[in-house]
Amino acid sequence: MKDRLIPVTSVSSGIEQPLTPDIHCLPIQVVNVCFVGSPVHPHDWVLVDAGMPKSADDILATAQELYGENNKPKAIILTHGHFDHVGAVEELVEHWDVPVYAHELEMPYLTGEMDYPEPDTSVEGGMVAKMSRMFPNEGIDLGSHVHPLPADGSVPHMPGWQWVHTPGHTQGHVSFFRESDRSLIVGDAFITVKQEYLFKVLTQEQEISGPPRYLTTDWDTAWESVRKLEALKPNLAVTGHGYPMTGDELTENLAKLNREFDTIAIPHHGRFVDNDDK
């Protein structure tokens, strides 16, 4: 039986919202994490992404509220390894002692071998783009806890879901799709807020957007990833930043982003933009 889609309203930081009976979104400051698994089956759930630094207590409290005390997840699944998606992962792994899964191309950033490129503060945008020079770009070391996602596209402990390689924002960025109800956990392949502008981040004004400009290194590939996700025809998209989007609004906005990616998403200038092709 398909999961019933629960209408999306506004989402406040630190307040968990159910989107389907087995997808719960927790906004933490400026980023979303997802709890995937029905509270009716409290021993069978996973955490998708791990939020901002120092957010472990919020994640642990929400997990206990949803699934009860001492019911740890089967795994932590990562869309990618940027600081705002792995901020609490080391503390959570120590607390829960569970495996972490990510795309094989993210492994060097999750095993301490490589750092991400420094944020590009030269892209146009508002205060957040300029502030991005202060954002951590160092990799983390999860040691033997981290594993590559299976090559067959399945997602460990998430039956019915498949991972979709959606690079551009990072080389190993992935999104997660469930065909039965067309639910999509996007990560930062596209988002629903203009993340470069402080006012829009503070007000969470909903607006379809490409991946955050200051951390995206391959714009041609990022556009191809949006094309790939639009072709899936999702009915629910939980993005890494901004409110979830559903139904016709999602269909229309995702089509618009695909059509107009060069003007909506790609900055006019920046270290990772080839202006000769504009």
TrEMBL record:
Note the superkingdom of the native organism.
Bacteria
InterPro entries associated with the record: Metallo-B-lactamas, NDM-1-like, RibonucZ/Hydroxyglut_hydro
| Cross-referenced SMART domains | Lactamase_B (SM00849)
Give start and end of each Metallo-beta-lactamase domain. 30-241
This chain belongs to the protein called MBL fold metallo-hydrolase
Q: What is the lineage of its organism?
A: Bacteria, Bacillati, Bacillota, Bacilli, Bacillales
